[in-house]
Amino acid sequence: MPEFKPRAKFAEECHAIILAGGSGTRLWPLSRNLLPKQLLVLGGELTLLQQTVKRVLAAFDPSRIWVVTNEEHLFEVRKQISAMHSGLDGQVLAEPLSRNTLPAIMLGLDRFIGGNDKVLAAVFPSDHLIGNGEAWIEDLVKASHLAARQRFVTFGVEPSKPETGYGYITLGKPLDTGVFEVDGFVEKPDLATAEGFLRHGSHYWNSGMFLFRAKDFLKQVAKCQPELWDWWMAREERPLVQGYRDIPGISVDYGVVEKIDNIAVVRAGFAWDDLGSWEAMYRLGVKDENGNVIQGDVLAMDCRNSLLISQGGKLAAVGLEDMIMVQTRDATLSCPMKRVQSVRSVVDALKAQGSQLVESHPTVVRPWGSYCVLEEGPHYKIKRIQVNPGARLSSQMHHHRSEHWVVVDGTAEVEVDGHARVMVENQSVDISKASQHRLANPGKVPLNIIEIQSGPYLEEDDIVRFEDVYGRVNK
Amino acid sequence: MPEFKPRAKFAEECHAIILAGGSGTRLWPLSRNLLPKQLLVLGGELTLLQQTVKRVLAAFDPSRIWVVTNEEHLFEVRKQISAMHSGLDGQVLAEPLSRNTLPAIMLGLDRFIGGNDKVLAAVFPSDHLIGNGEAWIEDLVKASHLAARQRFVTFGVEPSKPETGYGYITLGKPLDTGVFEVDGFVEKPDLATAEGFLRHGSHYWNSGMFLFRAKDFLKQVAKCQPELWDWWMAREERPLVQGYRDIPGISVDYGVVEKIDNIAVVRAGFAWDDLGSWEAMYRLGVKDENGNVIQGDVLAMDCRNSLLISQGGKLAAVGLEDMIMVQTRDATLSCPMKRVQSVRSVVDALKAQGSQLVESHPTVVRPWGSYCVLEEGPHYKIKRIQVNPGARLSSQMHHHRSEHWVVVDGTAEVEVDGHARVMVENQSVDISKASQHRLANPGKVPLNIIEIQSGPYLEEDDIVRFEDVYGRVNK
């Protein structure tokens, strides 16, 4: 990767906190709890997180970029951002569990605030789409000047439609060209109100980005959120993450921003979309001559103004108009564009059924690579396991199943009950119940093995870990 | 299975020919060339072929029932009808390739015409839905009396709507209650014409069933189709199937029925539908309180009057109205009910792309059982192979791939280069390139094995067969 140089002088006194811990499922079935929106490629070649990182790298030195995620996504986040810049590998912070945006930002601040009273912090969501990176940097520069004068800066987007799903910023008196004081916030207004906002030009969409002096921010936390302040102050005795379970989950908007009065809003010179629904994906996608956005293995006949995506199997669509069809290997969503908000209800219904379809894709990402369940029978389960070059699974044992491994691609290092061997393509090994075993990829290309499990109980929790390079030993 | 007794006296002089060689894909993606409509379960527990056989068994002795199919479907047809009555196993006739209905009927006639001038033949499509079996038998009895008086009998269904996709029979003068002479045939009229037919009661739908005196029928073939007559007459020197490749493909309607004048039509007392489209599947399906027909793993929210079928993966449908969604493991069809005829265009487009999706499902039925490709990679292919109890695959060899077999269920008898062994669950065997090998299921329950193929070329045609109980040795 090319080394990025910080291009903006303001960034010498500013750190970037990228929030990558979200777990929304508004883009189900593509997004799942274990693979949320920011980790998806939604057009182009980079995930939304990677696009965010790329943009931030154009302004900030890697050593001043902090990515906060939670443990469930840690390895995937690290993989994605390392691919953008090797210097980012150590800049990832993992929450033990999700506590909303305010604690996540504080986790980031903890890494760079030190004794520097002047240091600035810029906060970026990782799951929004932003166009025109030049203007975005200019707006950051503008904001840094305001923050140096102790303003808490938000970034507002001029509405182009009466959107009812966004938060709005109420403009106060102008401070400068494209800069206003903030008179308040309105969360998800009704249509009439949103239409009024659009007509009067009195409100901007809240982009979720912030820039502020770190010390000023913490002062506000001390004032508005005493519980979090206590947690923060205890960090001299124990790392912040250790107290994470006991703190309240609260958003930076609700917890701080909406409670203070010296806020400014910079009118965004950049294009912005929160990609909060399939409708947004459609709106921003490249259309064919019939107004369709089509991705993947799709056969469309006489379709108009529809979003047609397949990441698993052929999708044959005939005569659809204003429809959304999104297909993955294990689930398909079909709904009219105007019903796009109902995806939430679908996900809720699936959750209520305890469906795995909300949780993960058939392919599950692990620190060492990924696995995909190819088929399950009453007494067997067949998985394809991909191990990254150099990666090593935990040393483990199962009480209720035996396993059979066949290498189909790459080289495996297998250890069974203390006996090690190297296996190449088409070689296999039996691992009987209660044997201690371990799998690694000593090679330079991904290792693919097929695992055939047999036994009366085949769930993921029948696993006793003895040693794990990723710190997952059973406690 | 219980033994069925022929219940109708007429059937002592009559044989039944069931036509089961069709390969339509109007119900794609459920129907494929290798698994056409008649072989599918479309509601209930029996396939359409099995429903047909069950109905015919209520009137005919098994020894007088002949099922004509083509070689591609032979083993599946035999399996399905044997499950209905063990006596039917030897009653299946296989065309080497499809030549439409007239040659198929002659293939059936060949088996029972002998020297009996009086013998009757009843011809039944195997892919239609028929209700009220009692009335159906009464109509056959009525037809048999007409046929004995040398009438060629068709069965007409009173139209209930101006259907443009069916063939119509023009009624002539009445011969008896519910029996008319036939003045002609109209194939697929336009809507105005079909509406006129409905209004005037002058036309019936052609059900595709026929009953006639075999000898009279052959006289007509001699007159109308000299080429087929020559082929028929040559059967003293060689079996009919041997000349099959050289004869013209022609339907019984076009080749004979529409060319003769002593035809009668019996008004059907039974319910009939040709199930020629997803619209018919919807119309005949059991509706929920919102008018939806739902089968399989479907989550429907606020849907109305829609057909929602999943045989692979979750189908989440929101706010659909008058829509068809049919999902299988490898393909999904989505189209408005009124565009149902476009399925044909979808299939044509897929054919033009050389898509395997028209040909077969991921699970492919074989004489010995079935296999399903679970995953393919650049140098490997993973299959689940199911072998029926007592079945035995051909003794074979591959030039370009090695194979690895793991038993996951049941007992396998494996022979590799002359060495035989019995394998049980979780045991495995390597079969290297160019080894002669064979797999059988000596047990009483299905055998499931996972086959992992490795090699540079993994297509089905890399197979040299040495011996095969199903007669598929390479020539």
TrEMBL record, chains A, B:
Mannose-6-phosphate isomerase type II C-terminal domain mapped to chain residues: 354-468
Gene Ontology annotations of biological process type: GDP-mannose biosynthetic process; polysaccharide biosynthetic process
Domain Nucleotidyl transferase: start-end pairs: 16-289
Domain annotation MannoseP isomerase/GMP-like beta-helix: ranges: 296-350
GO molecular function, one term: mannose-1-phosphate guanylyltransferase (GTP) activity
Family matches, as InterPro entries: GMPP_N, Man1P_GuaTrfase/Man6P_Isoase, Man6P_isomerase-2_C, ManC/GMP-like_b-helix, Mannose-6P_isomerase_type2, NTP_transferase_dom, Nucleotide-diphossugar_trans, RmlC-like_jellyroll
EC annotation from Swiss-Prot or TrEMBL: 2.7.7.13
SUPFAM superfamilies from the UniProt entry: Nucleotide-diphospho-sugar transferases, RmlC-like cupins
Stretches assigned to coiled coil: none
Catalysis performed (reactions): alpha-D-mannose 1-phosphate + GTP + H(+) = GDP-alpha-D-mannose + diphosphate
UniProtKB keywords: GTP-binding, Isomerase, Nucleotide-binding, Nucleotidyltransferase, Transferase
Stated family: Belongs to the mannose-6-phosphate isomerase type 2 family.
UniProt cross-references to NCBIfam families, sorted A to Z: GMP_PMI
Alphabetical list of PANTHER family matching this protein: MANNOSE-1-PHOSPHATE GUANYLYLTRANSFERASE (PTHR46390)
Protein name (database record): mannose-1-phosphate guanylyltransferase
